[in-house]
Amino acid sequence: MSSLLSLQKDQEHLRKSLSDSCPASSAASSRSLRHERLLRLGSSGTSGTFTDTSTNHAESYFLQRENRLSAKKRAEEEKLNSDYKKMYEKAVATNQRLKSRLETSKQELSEIQDQLQRTQNGKPDDGSNMLEAEKKGSWSLKKKISDMEDQLKVKAELKLENQRLKDENGALIRVITKLSK
Predict the structure, then answer these.
(1) pTM, 2 dp
(2) In the predicted structure, residue 96 carries a pLDDT above the cut 90
């Protein structure tokens, strides 16, 4: 009987120490609680065989309970991991899209810088074609100007000849009128 009393006192002391202390992890506290329950179950029985079967039954119950809790924790962790995985995959896809946009922007920038450099150096891309077209245009304009100058000279000569013929015609008319009188 005295051993039973000392065992109960130990159990009460163990319960108080467990409730007062802050357990470091849930696994350690569940093991100590299981140990306490096993001790309680083990001390209540009088025969060894009954204690062994009830202890085995209690142990299997607590093992099943621990397995369920650990499975539940693993499921929660897997859910969190899958959420993180989805977020990571989304971030990677966004990064790839932004990298491709950055590359196209860099290419456009380099093309514009090349154009600017060529323009500043006086070497435009299509400038050679434009220069040839301008040369042809100026040559055709010069030709038209020289043709018009020639036409003006011919026109001035024709005016002078026309005036001479008018004067001659007037002189002939006077001679004819004098002869006819």
Answers:
(1) 0.29
(2) yes
